[in-house]
Amino acid sequence: MDAITIREIVDATGGQLLAGKEDAVVTGVCTDSRIFQQGDLFVALLGENTDAHRFVRQVAEQGGKTFLISESDAAEALADANVILVRDTLAGLQALTHYYLDKIGVGKIAVTGSVGKTSTRDMVYYILSEKYKTGRPIKNYNSDVGIPLTVFTFDSTMEMAVLEEGMEHAGEIHRLADMTRPEVAVITNVGISHLENLGSRENIYRAKMEITDFFGRDNVLIINESCDLLKRSRIHGDYKVITAGETGTEDYVVSDIRDMGLEGVSFTLTAGGESREFRLNVPGAHNALNAALAVAACAQYGVTMDQAAEGLRKLQLTGKRLKVREARGIRVLDDSYNAAPDSVKSAVRTMEATPAERRVAILGAMNELGDDTPALHYEVGRYAAEHGISLVVGIEPKAAEIVRGAREAGCDALYFDEKEDLYPELPKLLKEGDLVLTKASMTRHFWEIADKIING
Asked: Among 52, 63, 126, 212, which residue has the fewest nearby CB atoms (within 10 Å)?
């Protein structure tokens, strides 16, 4: 992070300097007292369960010199410190993020979507990095707090930034777009994640489209037109729209997709009269469309197809996404980061395209699906049974419908109430030559199952 002065923080946040020196500087931003470092601005956020104002004294004792607070009483514990009072510390953090992005002057591409946004974000990063010094999110940070923490790891030596913008409710992407003001945005798809909160796919579409709320004539929206709700004809904003898809009518046309299972994917991409073959060393045929969106986004900054292909050749996905792990002759496809019906089906298709003596799917709850939760879990179970899975293992109550669907489609299936009930059975259930998928919503921590299989 480039150093910024207390005066800059006060001006950017609209705060009041209660104590301290305007010309003092900070060299980092922190919201967690446990990882505070010397030189950080400590932002005392008010969370659902914790008020970080309780920890300002502790941070001061650790050497903290600069604080952003919304409770003036907290200043009493901060002798000899720079103390900035704002009405709302989260809003202050986001205003400072907006200011800092302008200050360092990076180009900005933002990615959102129901499924595939983190993978597409990673692809954008690897492609851009062939031409520019590029920053990307820490871990899976894509929220009101996560994006600021990412941005404050950037500095003015960076030329480009790729950001991920997530949501659970309407209005959230609007706030993130206001904070980041991307020049180019990508919407990967509109699925059924968040149905519980938003009620319909049409409402999810509107929420995703908030990423364009601050767009003008110089901005570009990249959409996956293979998604039924993402059509150029539906979009009427005063900005450029570029499409990718498989029908042959899009600006970026994906064809000749070859799913090689765990070995990856190859495909042909055609744009502007130029065609090129691409190879991804990560599994999942759906990633061909994600890659097309990433190539289209990076082309807005002069990245060539050849540069894009070289960047994608180096691609490594963040976190527990389609990671292949192996021990004792058992291969595990660890796709535990998150789950929705479409992403589970995609992982099953990857399994189906991979040679194996036996394919086992260990599946758990898919969250935020609303009234359709039982039916969608049942559908996933049937789909797994019909696409090469020999044994389905469902864990926790929602997954009981996955098991029912698999059984009714003629597949062997087992149900366990909790992960811990499965662990003693793993040595008996799995054998050399098995290919095993672990997948559920992130809150279920299914990577722990993958770890148990690998570590024995």
From this structure: 63
